[in-house]
Amino acid sequence: MRLRHAKTVVFGFLYELTPKLLRMYGSDLEFFGNGTREELDEFEEMLKLQRYRDPSDQVQAVWYECASNPLLKTVDLERLRRLADQYGFFLVVDDTIGSVANIDVLEVADIIVTSLTKSFSGYANVMAGSVILNPASKCYVELL
């Protein structure tokens, strides 16, 4: 995968193990913990500055939980998609809380991750999840 040791950006809160795993595999993390419009503005400014300051210091991926847990906030996903196209990063969306029944993120996400544990069993005796690669994504072949 390109930019293996590049930066990963996290909007809002993710499951606590996710940032640990990202760091374990060599990714620098940048957090925008509230996932607000103002933080999206800050992120866009960061992208602009990095492009001119150090082209090798790029963002590889943005992870976002839609809607965020526990605050149920949603950032402007179409704007994130435009930024992903402009700056060449993957957009990874966790749709566990919103679920595919309520929120369709396939149009904007390159990768969709979902925890299915509670859907399969409420007794904590099963672990399950899914990863979906968007076949319409510009980076679909690269992600295979």
UniProtKB/TrEMBL annotation:
One GO BP:
transsulfuration
Gene Ontology MF annotations: cystathionine gamma-synthase activity; pyridoxal phosphate binding
What cofactor(s) does the depicted protein rely on?
pyridoxal 5'-phosphate
Q: InterPro entries recorded for this chain?
A: Cys/Met-Metab_PyrdxlP-dep_enz, PyrdxlP-dep_Trfase, PyrdxlP-dep_Trfase_major, Trans-sulfuration_enzymes
Q: Name one Pfam family in it.
A: Cys_Met_Meta_PP
> Keywords assigned by UniProt?
Pyridoxal phosphate
Q: Which family does it belong to?
A: Belongs to the trans-sulfuration enzymes family.
Name of protein: Cystathionine gamma-synthase
What species is this protein from?
Fusarium oxysporum f. sp. narcissi
